[in-house]
Amino acid sequence: MRTINIFDTTLRDGEQSAGVNLNLSEKLEIAKQLERLNVDIIEAGFPAASKGDFISVREIATLIRNCSVTGLARSVMSDIDAAWEALREGEGPRLHVFLATSPIHRQYKLKQSKEEVIETAVSAVKYAAGKFPLIQWSAEDACRTELPFLARIVEEVIQAGARVINIPDTVGYISPGEYGKVFQYLRENVPSIDKVILSAHCHDDLGMAIANSLAAIENGAGQIEGTINGIGERAGNAALEELAVALHIRQDHYQAGTRLKLEEISRTSSLVSKLTGMAVPANKAIVGRNAFAHESGIHQDGVLKEKTTYEIISPELVGFHSNSMVLGKHSGRHAFKSRLEELGLAVPEEEIKPLFAIFKDLADRKKEMTDDDLAAIVLEERLSKDQQFYELLQIQVQYGTNQVPTATVTLSGRENEVVQEAATGAGSIEALYNTLEKSVNGTVNLLDYRIQSVGAGRDALAQVFVKMKYNGRETSGRGLAQDVLEASAKAYLNAVNRVIYLEEKTKVAL
Ligand code: KIV
Ligand code: ZN
Q1: Closest ligand 1 atom to the C-alpha of 237?
Q2: Cα separation of 118 and 153, whole Å?
Q3: Ligand 2 center to residue 201 CA distance, Å?
Q4: Which ligand is in closest contact with the Cα of 166?
Q5: CA 144 to chain CA centroid, nearest Å
Q6: Which atom of ligand 1 is nearest to the CA of 9?
Q7: Ligand 1 within 6 A of CB of 140
Q8: What's the CA-to-centroid distance between 170 and ligand 2, angstroms?
Q9: By CB distance 3.0 to 4.6 Å, which of 198, 292, 325, 431 could disulfide with 405?
């Protein structure tokens, strides 16, 4: 059995998904969960891309101790310097430096000859080797690169000091058979290949990212890159949960496994979905709501007689448990705290008191407090402290089938002043959002609005996701409440507050 290293790029390639825009606390929350999942490497961001990226990579590198943290750099000294400054305090700092190699990128993007591309790559790796103990080099668009040239440049960067060689299918173009042959070719034609770990990085434009990653493993790859839920540029990256479970279930075939704690998969998937606002499709393999649902009578009958007739993966393997009613309004603080610990939601002592008050208030109104509810309120409370420029104090919405819907909102404003407005709309949400727009001093275009329940039941908590443009800047927001209108208002303000936070940060940087 071989052990395959898992390189998670949810916070870098994943964050490049359209409309995803995580703040520092959200990135830290995801990084901690990736550490719990036991990935080998976390790619925390692209430190030279912006001040915000630099800070989040540095904070993640400082916080995470049980896996290696890396950051992306172009083949330029200033990027490598920024990455070193961000990563130097981390556990096993490693650099991920890349350069495009395909003819199309050489001609149109880099405007460099083959020789110049080799020279740029080699000098970047040599420069980085003076700082980093470990360097991963990636040939961007490797899969549309001439194989002899790919082999040549790979040999040169190994000689220069790279110890992991990544062969990305940047545009999601290659097929599994072909991708396997690229790895085979490199193993046969790069003299120093035994000094390095080969890595696969697949995009899903043609729906082949997982099949390609598995083909790479069959042909000698020792590391797979991907993201949780497969989020990422365009159609996304290889979904790590799918890869890890495929290796686990088909050990007989692949003779390879990962170090991932598979039982942490469902929690990781739901955290990433919640914080990025990217819903997991119901039929998605491993983590979709229907992944373990047997609908047809024949299948149900078979599963009742013997699970393995139609079930190759048990939900428990990846951490899905039936969402039992765990606590209620009579539960004490001690029971609350120990349930959080059992759920892996360890909370510092000073946070227990305010959380318990929220729990009690909710438990008074809601019959059943499920594990999902607990996880949702802990997360929301932890993350809502950031960026509270506008804060919701009160809303009142009047709606009747023969009435013009009207909303009145009271907020605490940017200078802690009380802001009160009222407006109408064609429906309750429109009235509410028209009122909020009058309150937040700017123009808002709503691009998307989504509502979802946390768990089941008519008294379930409501989680609202919005995407909008506020003062010309695209942003997204999340709101949680028992009432859908309150959750909607919170999501709206969360999105507005993110833009104000970015604007304030830019002012400080200037
Ligand atoms: O897809 C890609 O080529 C990348 C590189 C930067 C590794 O993400
Ligand atoms: Zn990529």
Answers
A1: 1
A2: 6
A3: 6
A4: 1
A5: 28
A6: 8
A7: yes
A8: 5
A9: 431
- Structure-block tokens of residue 404: 């013009």
CA distance 185 to 396: 67
Report residues near ion ligand 2: CB below 5 Å. 13
Q: How many CB atoms lie within 10 A of CB 452?
A: 14
Task: Specify the pLDDT at position 331.
Answer: 87
State the pLDDT at residue 367: 74
From CA 17, how far away is CA 397, in angstroms rounded? 35
Q: Are 265 and 240 in contact (CB under 8 A)?
A: no
Q: What percent of the chain has pLDDT over 70?
A: 97
Supply 406's token pair: 């009207």
* Cα separations in angstroms, 136 against 25, 75, 197: 27, 12, 9
Please give the share of the chain, as a percent, with pLDDT higher than 90: 76
Query: Which of 149, 144, 148, 201 has the alpha carbon at shortest distance from 173?
Result: 144
Q: Over the stretch 47-71, which tens digit does the pLDDT of each residue have?
A: 999 999 999 999 999 999 999 999 9
Cβ 53 under 6 angstroms from ligand 1: no
Q: What is the DSSP string of 181-220?
A: HHHHHHHHH-TTGGGSEEEEEEB-TTS-HHHHHHHHHHTT
Helix H or strand E encompassing 31: helix 24-37
Question: From the alpha carbon of 96, which atom of ligand 1 is closest?
Answer: 7
Distance between Cα 13 and ligand 2 center (Å): 6
CA proximity to 182, closest of 224, 145, 136, 153: 145
Over the stretch 139-169, which tens digit does the pLDDT of each residue have? 999 999 999 999 999 999 999 999 999 999 9
Among the bound ligands, name the one nearest to the CA of residue 144.
1
Ordered structural domains, the chain, with CATH = 2-276 (3.20.20.70), 297-384 (1.10.238), 391-509 (3.30.160.270)
235 — phi, psi (to 5°)?
-80, 0
Kindly give the residue spans of alpha helices, DSSP state H, lying in 144-296: 147-160, 176-189, 209-218, 240-249, 251-254, 265-276
Helices 484-509, 51-63: axis angle to 10 degrees equals 100
